[in-house]
Structure formats: C-alpha cells, structure tokens
Amino acid sequence: MTDQECVQFLQWALLQLGYRWAGFRKVRRQVCRRLRGRMDELGLSGAAAYIQYLASHPSEWGVLDGFCRITISRLFRNRAVFKLLAEVGLPRLGEAVSRAGRTELRAWSAGCASGEEPYSLALLWRLQVQPRFPDLDLSILATDADEALLQRAAQACYGRSSLRELPPEWLDLGFEPAGPRYCLREEYRRGVRFQRQDIRREWLEGPFDLILCRNLVFTYFDTALCAAVGRQIAERLNEGGLLLVGYHEQLPPGMPELRPWPGRYGLYQKCANGTPLAR
Predict the structure, then answer these.
(1) What's phi and psi for 142, nearest 5 deg?
(2) Is 109 in contact with 118 (CB distance < 8 Å)?
(3) Residues 26-56: pLDDT tens digits?
(4) Nearest residue to 240 (alpha-carbon basis) of 227, 257, 219, 228
(5) Cα separation of 236 and 234, whole Å?
(6) Crossing angle for the helix pair 28-42 and 47-56, nearest 10 degrees?
(7) Is 205 helix (H, G, I), strand (E, B) or coil?
C-alpha cells in the first residue's frame, strides 16, 4: 500500500470511526505503518482488499480503531504547561478545596497512555505544591482505552527518552534505575489509580477539580463527537475547576461555562455566568 493509498483509505475509514482526518495528518505515517503490518499479517494486497475484509469481518473495525490511537507521550511534555500548573493552577485549586473544608483534590487524566501525564502531575504535586498544603492530598484517576498501555503505566518504568523533559534534579528524587530504564519510586505512585475507559462511550462519575485532556478529544474526534464528549467533560468539572487541553487545541462551540485564561497554554476555568476568572 503506497502512502497515497493509505491517506485515501484513512480519509474514508476515520469518518466511520468518529475521527477527523485533519488531526491525523502529522501522525499518519505511524498509523500507515501499523496498517501495512496488519495487511501483511492477513495476506491482503492493498487498501481495496482491506476494505472488503472489513465488510466481511465487522470485528476488524475494532482492530483498525486500535491502530488509530496515537501514543506520543513523555513525562513533563510541554514543560511550560506544568510550570503554569505548579505556579498558578494547582495552588488556586488547593486554596479553593481547602476553603471548602475538603481534604482531597481530585484530578482526572484522560487518555493517559503509559502513565506519563498522571505521574508528572503526582511528582509536581508532591515535590513543589503539597508543602503549601500539608493537609491536602491529590487523588488522580488516569484512564485510557488501551489495556496494554495501562499495564505499562502500572509498572511506572521508562527509558531515557521519556524522561528528557523531567527537571534533572527530580530524576534522582523520583526514580530508581532498573537496567536501562528508570522506575518511579513507590511513594510517588500512591494516589494514582488507572482504569480502562473509552471516552467516546464510557463515563466517570466525577466531579473533578482538575481534568487533563490533552491531544485526544479536541484533536482527533470529529465535530459532532468532539462536542458531545466536550459537554460530558464539562459536566464532570467542579465549579471553579480547571480543564487543561493541548497547547494548540480549541474547545468546540457550546461550552460557554469554560473560559480560557488569556495566553495560558490551553487552560480553561469553569465559571458560572458573571463569575470572574481566577488570577
């Protein structure tokens, strides 16, 4: 299957799965590589043959859907975002939760892949923010649709390439060497729980004070699905809570209660009508 054939196939197939082609342009080679391997495994000669196979084997759509999950991730990806959370976002939330008389700040990391994002948040909280809130714990629920990725997340072990944006001094504080990899120390895993979830179809109870949904819903899902999932996310966010999306992502129309912090790297706050944004 040539690159052009793969692009044409994806432009057709992604629509059937609720995705949009625009989100896959830059990562299409990753998906096409997986598709070629699958076609070789099935002994199929090209895209036309695979389309016929999909028609006669409906369960194959689930396999194809799995190939379209993009798993580019590393700890502290986009460090400026985590700097913003440490200096502004988490302290604001900590103050609000404490004023409400609660002892737990609840966060949800949607599309957590191998655990890089929730563990980054856990490290950030323990090493930089929690000293200001000694009586407040951070609970993180991390979800993903890929069971294999969740198993890797539970191991909490990473190669050097996944740690290159980690503050250097935190490598020794937070990780133990294990051969060529580094494993997160047990004390930083506490409070992080993993659960399988297909965010297109399954919903958590909530509510949460912080939701991280970066480079998933608002990049890859088609217009209708993006709007529907976005509304569900907003409903699970506490009043005054924060939503962090990808740096280049924008929320769909119909979510007026989520207001962007000007120039704030994809950070939104849930505000009732007339409620000013926190500063």
Answers:
(1) -115, 130
(2) yes
(3) 888 889 999 999 999 999 988 999 999 999 9
(4) 257
(5) 5
(6) 70
(7) coil
**Token pair of 36, please?**
């070629």
C-alpha atoms less than 13 angstroms from C-alpha of 185 in its C-beta half-sphere? 12
Taking only the tens place, the pLDDT of each residue in 152-192 is 999 999 999 999 999 889 999 999 999 999 999 999 999 99
Helix axes 60-67, 28-42, angle to 10 degrees: 150
- Identify whether the C-beta of residue 200 lies closer than 8 Å to the C-beta of residue 232: no
Residue 135: how many other CB atoms lie within 10 Å: 7
Place of tokens 């909280």: 125
Q: Give the other-Cβ count within 10 Å of 203's Cβ.
A: 12
Task: Tell me how far apart the alpha carbons of residues 234 and 252 are, in angstroms, rounded to a whole number.
Answer: 12
Other beta carbons less than 10 A from residue 206's beta carbon: 16
Q: Element (H or E) spanning 78, and its range?
A: none
Contacting residues for 181 by C-beta, under 8 A, at least 6 apart:
157, 158, 159
Give CA–CA dist 59/230, Å, rounded.
28
Task: State both tokens at 201.
Answer: 């179809």
Which stretch of DSSP H or E encloses residue 10?
helix 3-17
Q: What are the two backbone dihedrals, phi and then psi, of residue 261, each rounded to the nearest 5 degrees?
A: -80, 125
- Helical axes 60-67 vs 3-17, angle rounded to 10°: 110
Q: What is the mean pLDDT of residues 17-31?
A: 88
β-bridge mates for residue 19, sequence order = 221
Provide the 3-class DSSP secondary structure of residue 158. strand
